[in-house]
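Example 3.2
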Amino acid sequence: MRKVGIHNFPDIDRVVYGKPAAEALNDEAVRLNANRVFLLVSRTLNTKTDEIETIRRALGNKHVATFDGIAQHTTRKQAAEVARQAKEAQADLVVAVGGGSAVDLAKIVIMAMEHDIFDEAGFDPFVMGPGVPFSPFRAPTVRQIAVPSTLNGGEYNAGALVTDERTKLKQIFFHPQMSPVAVILDPDLSLHTPTNLWMGSGTRAMDHGIEALCSPAGTPLADEVVLAGIRLLREGMLRTLQQPNDMEARRQSQQGSWLAAFGLQARVPMGASHGIGHVLGGTFDVPHYYCTPVIMPSLLRYNKAFTEDAQKRLAAALGSPEMEAGDAFAGFVKALGLPTRLADVGVGEDKFEKISKIAINHRFVQANPRPFKSESDIIDLLRMAA
């Protein structure tokens, strides 16, 4: 049967690798004619290492301010406050240095700056409703650069997840130019990342690849690239687990994350692992890097009849072609020392009904390759993962 589709390319100028982050960032600021750089950075990197100070020194008088109090789950309230600070600093470039929370915050901050959003309610007109592909933002005047210290891979797409603390719901905001204008990969930064965060964020990067591979809207180019990314991630993460100072393994892991996120770059819709993960994080405060390990093995089993060919290719990429993909992924997660069940992250059956009521309306849950016909179907999946 002939497959019909469209492959999209992202609004990212470049990925820079092989240079120290400070040197690469200053080069990018010069390229972009940026003279007032606002840094959004990991507090650990800022207060317990010299990495951020090295970046500030490289930028010189182009650096205007640093913010390091980033919440684990990006909130409207914090985005509005940081946007106010960046606007007052007359920033012409925002740079995120750290994990996925820093990158998401930078994405939504540049949009809050564009629209003078300085309180939680200011985001209300821009929430993506059912069937709406983009948030109705103007293109941002100020762009951002991402310098990731984890493997999440969210820096390669234009969506931001932002929690509305008034409702405890995590919402998606999207505009093509919310993507970083550049991504800078420096494995030296990752030496300061806790092992559980490095490994957990790597499974999140794999999640991007797996859901793109299994999506009915996937493309031939995305399929091949994400499979290569999953292979690189598996090898690099296991090597890093054994030898934390193996910089080649860390570089390989970063490049695996880049490739595994290719489906995100092509705007291939994610599935229920992402959708349910957003509920677990936004409403129940589960760390985002633990959501994939506890949901994905059961979701692969749930989706198997609808994604058999993709799952065979996935099992091979995970180094276990003789196994079912769900079992192969579960074994990989266990080898990394990550939680493997919902109970391990404090989510019991008493929460399943609320999760299902929220998740059933999530656009990624609705894009899952095996449809969920009702909330009870979601509860069945959650029981599999309990």
